[in-house]
């Protein structure tokens, strides 16, 4: 539609399923770059003709390797696109794709972390991107015409960057940052001088500058794999061993990040409860092999990662392994129920928030497109886990 004419809206093309999103308009407005997401490790790019609605595939559907694509932008001449993809890589890289030949050229191969977001300047000459390095955001930029090595920005406040946008003249970058001491504010950086300017001060009900920052911790799981978490320690006014609340993220392909805790700050700062946000196997941000480690019959290994976390807590002199609680929402709620079942003797309490108690009935009754998204990760294991229960009910 033409946004200035409400009556101009019309159906352009029909899309099957629910994992679609438009990414960008071509410079001549004749094409739309479209993303189709099947699962965490499988997605496809399309071009849509804005006059006819015809869809043309950019990426092959019959490829042997499952490939994930993310954000996408047309280059200034419209002949190429910049995209995020894990094609031929453990991590999601920034790539330039030639539309005529479909050839991929990779811009961030030397950075062993996922690129999470990027923005191309209005003149197409500068590109800024953000990497996720153990949960912390790192900002980079480079000149697309000279192909200089990406420059790392080191003067930013620590935290998680939500988005980046170039000023129209390409001299300044706007970005949002959230961390343990702030729920999200807007900054800008002069890319020539490196000068930072803060534009907003988000309102909070209480002063936040003294809130403890996240600490990255790691432990070895049952099979020797390294698992990590973000630990928030209570203020020094609380003495003695502190009780611990383990907060498990959903997804399951999510990632706990060192962002603002919101109301959980009350548990930390007023009740003296240490908070642990683990990233068990299956989490994103640590390579696609790690993300796929919880698929099918490996589902129970994620529960064992939490059990290994309990072992690690027992080695920490300031944490009380005899007073552990577990909570999580959605798939984190399912994890909470599983941990409560298998390791009930190791916890004091648990709070499941909208978790799935039965993965089979979840797959049977959820929407079709969500079933497609979850089938590859859950179906095999869910069927095995619940088969005996179903047979008992039938008898």
How would you characterize this protein structure?
The chain has about 400 residues and is α+β, with helices and mostly antiparallel strands. The chain folds into two domains: about 20-200, 6 Propeller (Neuraminidase); about 215-355, 3-Layer(aba) Sandwich (Rossmann fold), CATH 3.40.50. It has six helices and 22 strands. It has a six-stranded mixed beta sheet, with helices on one face. The chain has a four-stranded antiparallel beta sheet with strand order 1-2-3-4, with helices on one face. A hairpin with a 5-residue loop joins β7 and β8 (about 105). α3 crosses α4 (about 330-340) and α5 (about 360-365) crosses α6.
Short synopsis of the structure:
By secondary structure, the chain is of the alpha+beta class. It has helices at 264-269, 288-291, 299-314, 331-342, 359-365, 368-394, and strands at residues 20-25, 31-39, 42-49, 55-57, 69-74, 80-85, 93-98, 104-106, 114-120, 126-133, 136-143, 151-153, 160-166, 172-179, 182-190, 196-198, 215-220, 226-232, 242-248, 274-279, 319-329, 349-353. It has 2 domains: 20-198, Neuraminidase (6 Propeller), CATH 2.120.10.30; 215-357, 3-Layer(aba) Sandwich (Rossmann fold).
């Amino acid at each position: 539609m033409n946004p200035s004419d409400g009556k101009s809206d019309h159906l352009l093309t029909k899309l099957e399923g629910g994992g679609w999103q438009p990414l960008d308009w071509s410079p001549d407005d004749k094409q739309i770059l479209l993303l189709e997401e099947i699962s965490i490790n499988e997605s496809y790019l399309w071009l849509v003709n804005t006059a006819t609605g015809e869809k043309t595939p950019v990426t092959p559907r019959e490829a042997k390797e499952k490939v994930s694509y993310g954000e996408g932008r047309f280059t200034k001449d419209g002949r190429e696109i910049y995209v995020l993809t894990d094609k031929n890589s453990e991590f999601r890289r920034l790539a330039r794709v030639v539309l005529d030949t479909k050839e991929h050229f990779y811009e961030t191969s030397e950075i062993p972390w996922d690129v999470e977001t990027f923005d191309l300047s209005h003149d197409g000459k500068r590109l800024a991107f953000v990497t996720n390095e153990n949960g912390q955001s790192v900002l980079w930029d480079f000149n697309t015409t000279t192909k200089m090595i990406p420059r790392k920005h080191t003067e930013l406040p620590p935290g998680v960057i939500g988005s980046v946008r170039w000023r129209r003249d390409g001299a300044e970058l706007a970005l949002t940052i959230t961390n343990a001491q702030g729920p999200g504010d807007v900054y800008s950086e002069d890319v020539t001088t490196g000068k930072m300017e803060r534009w907003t001060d988000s309102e909070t009900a209480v002063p936040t500058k003294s809130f403890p920052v996240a600490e990255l911790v790691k432990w070895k799981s049952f099979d020797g794999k390294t698992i990590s978490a973000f630990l928030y320690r209570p203020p020094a006014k609380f003495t003695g061993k502190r009780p611990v609340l383990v907060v498990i993220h959903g997804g399951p392909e999510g990632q706990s990040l060192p962002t603002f805790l919101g109301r959980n700050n009350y548990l930390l700062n007023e009740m003296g409860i240490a908070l642990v946000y683990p990233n068990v196997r299956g989490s994103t941000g640590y390579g696609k092999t790690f993300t796929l480690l919880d698929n099918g019959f490996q589902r129970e290994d994620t529960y064992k990662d939490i059990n290994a976390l309990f072992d690690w807590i027992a080695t920490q002199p300031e944490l009380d392994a005899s007073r552990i609680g577990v909570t999580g929402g959605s798939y984190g709620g399912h994890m909470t129920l599983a941990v409560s079942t298998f390791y009930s003797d190791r916890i004091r309490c648990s709070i499941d928030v909208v978790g799935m108690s039965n993965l089979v009935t979840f797959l049977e009754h959820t929407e079709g497109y969500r079933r497609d998204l979850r089938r590859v990760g859950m179906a095999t294991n869910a069927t095995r886990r619940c088969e005996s229960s179903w047979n008992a009910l039938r008898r």
